[in-house]
Amino acid sequence: MPDDKDQIPKPDEEQPEEKKYSFLQETIKTKPTSRQQLARQLVRIAIYGVILGAFACLGFFALKPWVQDIFRGNLETVSIPEDEDPAEDEASSQADETEGQENTGQPAAAEDYEQMMASMNERAEEARKGIVSVQAAAGQTDWTAEMTGIDRSVTGIITADNGQELLILADSSICEDAKEWNVVFDDGKSCSASLKKRDLNTGLAMFSVPRGSISDSTWDAVKVSVLGNSNLAKQGDVVMALGNMFGYPGGMSFGLISSTDYKTLFYDGECDVMATDIVSDSEGTGVLFNMDGEVIGLISPSVWKDNETNAVNAYAVSDLKPVIEIMANGESVPYIGIYGTTVTSELQQNQGMPAGVYVVDVDPDSPAMEAGIQSGDIICQIGDEKVSSIVTYQSAVLEAKTGRQVLIRGMRLGSDGYVEVRFTVTVGSRE
């Protein structure tokens, strides 16, 4: 056997050198990028950017109504401006008429007439931005609408913007048999609306449309209507009627005021009526504008229901401004429930009647009836407000708060003449 010693290397023998690797000194080189690969990466990045942008836009438009609904602006109190003194405006109007008469020359030519009509049409188009069509969302198939293509609707007025909602005033007849409504603006866009308040006494309803549901393009196409001073309107004035007067939305007509001498009565008040020579459907609704584009009348089928003529008759808007302001602020319109008339100075002198409001009739289901007020009583005071006419009586009622008790002082004819009577009335509302 070989000896183990033979396997031990000798010192003088040369040993093979060990291979040394320095991994830390190696450089890893990336594979060079070709132009095609670079183009693919740029296209990929662009596609990702477009996709992210599309999702961002969709998210913005989807969340915009929700964000606006959560972060609403401050609710502003709606205030309807009071009418100016008619005497000053009449003086200004007479001065304008005098100036116009001085400048009158030869009869107008056909071109002048066309220019006049074009100017009137422009004013009508501008006024139309302040009105809408309020449609009832039918719970079942409306066969009349299916056949005619005309949905059940009434004309609405864009009355105010309280910072959270756009407020729409309309005839309350659209509330019958309906729980949902749509508002169609002048640009044809439709939004859901909710009933804010309703007053069966005057036949008015206030609807609201959330600001967040109205697109920017629609905001640019609409405006809040200006409620003018109907007390300045007089016989012979040129007016324009816009709305659903002919049984379909979007109608327009021009005419003259034929009379301003009449009134219509409702419980706890009265309202002037403006009669015109404009032909209307018996159930038509609309808005009467003066030539300055201001609302001066509300066309309603409830004006003189028994009148067989189909002419446009409108409630004078000045007499309804206090009611409109109450409803626009989400409050119930106070209601006591009497038909009354002013005791004139002639009646006071000739028949010895006290000053105040003579009660002609009492609504059977009213606070007045419950308190014991009777036909023939004369109302002299409501709370701290003295009553000398139907106008002051109406104002005192509207200043009362629904649900609260108010002391009414009156006079009642007895065997020995008029004696004082007092009534404690809980003010109600007709909604």
Textual characterization of the structure:
The structure is a single chain. Helix content is 27%, strand content 30%. With 431 residues, it is of the alpha+beta class. Among the domains are: 131-139 and 148-221, Thrombin, subunit H (Beta Barrel); 230-328, Trypsin-like serine proteases (Thrombin, subunit H, Beta Barrel); 338-426, Roll (Pdz3 Domain). The strands form three sheets. The chain has a six-stranded antiparallel β-barrel. The chain is elongated.
| N- and C-termini, Cα separation | 126 Å
**Could you say which structural class the secondary elements and strand pairing correspond to?**
alpha+beta
Radius of gyration: 38 Å
Q: Count the strands?
A: 18
H/I helix tally: 9
Q: What is the second-level CATH architecture of the domain at 230-328?
A: Beta Barrel
Query: Spans with pLDDT under 50 lasting ≥5 residues?
Result: none
Biggest sheet statistics: 6 strands, antiparallel, barrel
Oligomer: single chain
Q: In percent, how much strand structure appears in the residues? A: 25-35%
- The H/E string reads HHHEHEEEEEHEEEEEEHEHEHEEHEE
Please tell me the overall pLDDT.
84
Cα shape: elongated
| Fraction of residues in H or I helices | 25-40%
Arrangement of strands in the largest sheet: 1-2-3-6-5-4
What do we call the CATH topology of the domain at 230-328? Thrombin, subunit H
CATH homologous superfamily heading of the domain at 230-328 = Trypsin-like serine proteases
Class of the domain at 230-328, according to the CATH hierarchy? Mainly Beta
